Amino acid sequence: MDAIAPDGLIGKNVHSSGILSLVEVNTSALLVWIARLHVTGAVAQVIIPR
Q: What is the dihedral of CA 16, 18, 21, 22, to 10 degrees?
């Protein structure tokens, strides 16, 4: 299975799905990120407006 290239999805409407396998929560208020979500079997599909 090919990796998802996020650069091609910027600014587009995207439907994504997969299995949430791990959630890492940031316990330090000094870092920018709040949580990191790990998804297995991820699929991203660009939605074309009708």
A: 0
Task: Report how far residue 45's alpha carbon sits from residue 24's, in angstroms, rounded to the nearest whole number.
Answer: 25
- The predicted model scores a pTM of 0.59
Residue 2 lies in a domain: no
Number of domains in the chain: 1
For residue range 17-31, what is the model confidence (pLDDT) as tens digits? 999 999 998 888 777
> What's the domain range around 15?
10-46
What is d(CA 37, CA 46) in angstroms, rounded to the nearest whole number? Answer: 21
State the DSSP code for 17. Answer: E
C-alpha closest to that of 33 among 23, 42, 43: 23
